[in-house]
Amino acid sequence: MEATILSRGLERPLSRAEYEDFLFEEAAMLDHRRFDEWFALFTDDAVYEVPQAGVEDNANSATDLFYIADDHAKLRFRVARMQKTANHSEFPASVCSRSITNVRVTGNDERGVHVECRFITYRSKNEATDLYCGHHQYILRHEEGVLKIASKRTFIDMNSLRQQGKVTIFI
Questions:
Q1: 74 lies in which domain range?
Q2: What global pTM score does this model have?
Q3: Contact assessment for residue 141 and residue 35, using Cβ atoms and an 8 Å cutoff
Q4: d(CA 5, CA 85)
């Protein structure tokens, strides 16, 4: 997955299928709790955000309620905490299965290539299975020849999380 740089400093988008393969692998990392590998996908200036369920795509973490609004350092801390047995909200660990669909390349700018997809995440824990559905918005770019996540925003397309209670997994 080698990208080319356009004359204005913009990265030429790869094919949809190449981004789709990247997102499938990301989902597999999360399903198999390979959190250190997943964290390595992020750039040093990356952000990982999960706005409140049901908000518009233009939500702003500076003014709107977000379940998660992490920069790289906060995400590193969250990944480390997720792997500790003292993390009571995820001990015993949830069993998750993610489906990624409708991958689309939506543009590119100086930050990278914009890619969107739909998702369904099934989470089983304590004899209950919860469903999270929504869409991801990514900004992806190559750094030293490796495709990385500069931004991931996960929008939960549900009215609320009343049935699930809270978000204790990476969606």
A1: 16-156
A2: 0.90
A3: no
A4: 44
